[in-house]
Amino acid sequence: MPEGPEIRRAADSVEKALVGLPVLEVFFAFEELQGYEPALQGTNVRRVDTKGKAMLIRFDNGWTIYSHNQLYGKWMVRNAYNYPKTNRQLRLAIHNEKKSALLYSASDIEVLRDEEVDMHPFIARVGPDILSEDVSEEQLLDRFQSKKFYRRKWSSLLLDQSFIAGIGNYLRSEILFVAGIHPDLRPTDCSAEQLEKTAAAVIQLMKQSYETGGITNDFDLAMKLKDKGQKRPQYRHWVFNRGGQPCRVCGTEIVKTIAASRRLYFCPTCQNR
């Protein structure tokens, strides 16, 4: 499943393609949405927002298209009406005279009035979004120590979209490694210094992943490894997907485990309990 940085990058691409030119046509695959097609034709896209893993395409007539890629959804931006050869099913298409923004395979799509967006069940419950809102380390620290969250294990907490929006499986492992937090710990088990490192890691890694297209390893180190011939999956992360390989910091073998029904990677030395 794409995580917050991937959705924000997709939103940037969709926004660049659609803003500035009138919409010629909108296509919805789902019959219950097809009645909105005439209302959106001839409008202009004002901007494209994200909230965690959800995308919000805002039109100048007060309507917003909400979409969530879930596991298989994928956005593609092409020249106008130039459809790719794919086995995926087209769910949504927005065309102007130059570009087409195409959403394949996703099933979670709705059309909302602007004033309804904040009341949408997903939007209403999701936590702060590092990539679309001004979120400080101090605000995250308050969240870490709140009664709602402070007694839950980090390994499940970081995947809870009501805690922080947009964190998924690879970011969970990477944040905990950079913060030096063992995945079995809870915020209440951590020192003030550990909590501060975690807040900094959340903001830094989400922004770095967005800016670099998913690289969470030290960027200079990643580029050195790339120059030495390593492929992207080999140099991309600190620990994620590196089970059995040496830690980049201390050389200890990276451990792969299962937490919250999903794979998690950590260094037992750098993240000692």
Automatic annotation (TrEMBL):
Which top EC class applies here? lyase
| Keyword presence, DNA-binding | yes
In its UniProt record, which GO terms are filed under biological process?
base-excision repair
Q: Which GO terms describe its molecular function?
A: class I DNA-(apurinic or apyrimidinic site) endonuclease activity; damaged DNA binding; oxidized pyrimidine nucleobase lesion DNA N-glycosylase activity; zinc ion binding
Annotated Formamidopyrimidine-DNA glycosylase catalytic domain residues: 2-101
InterPro entries for this protein: EcNei-like_N (IPR044091), FPG_cat (IPR012319), FPG_N (IPR035937), H2TH_FPG (IPR015886), Ribosomal_uS13-like_H2TH (IPR010979), Znf_DNA_glyclase/AP_lyase (IPR000214), Znf_FPG/IleRS (IPR010663)
PANTHER family tied to this protein: ENDONUCLEASE 8
The Swiss-Prot or TrEMBL record lists the needed cofactor(s) as: Zn(2+)
Enzyme Commission identifier(s): 4.2.99.18
Similarity comment: Belongs to the FPG family.
What is the protein named? Answer: Formamidopyrimidine-DNA glycosylase
Q: Which UniProt keywords apply?
A: DNA damage, DNA repair, DNA-binding, Endonuclease, Glycosidase, Hydrolase, Lyase, Metal-binding, Multifunctional enzyme, Nuclease, Zinc, Zinc-finger
Task: List the PROSITE patterns.
Answer: FPG_CAT, ZF_FPG_2
Source species, please? Falsibacillus albus
Q: Which domain of life is it from?
A: Bacteria
- SUPFAM superfamilies tied to this protein: Glucocorticoid receptor-like (DNA-binding domain) (SSF57716), N-terminal domain of MutM-like DNA repair proteins (SSF81624), S13-like H2TH domain (SSF46946)
Pfam families given for it? Answer: Fapy_DNA_glyco (PF01149), H2TH (PF06831), zf-FPG_IleRS (PF06827)
Quote the Gene3D superfamilies the UniProt record gives.
Answer: 1.10.8.50, MutM-like, N-terminal (3.20.190.10)
FPG-type domain residues are 238-272
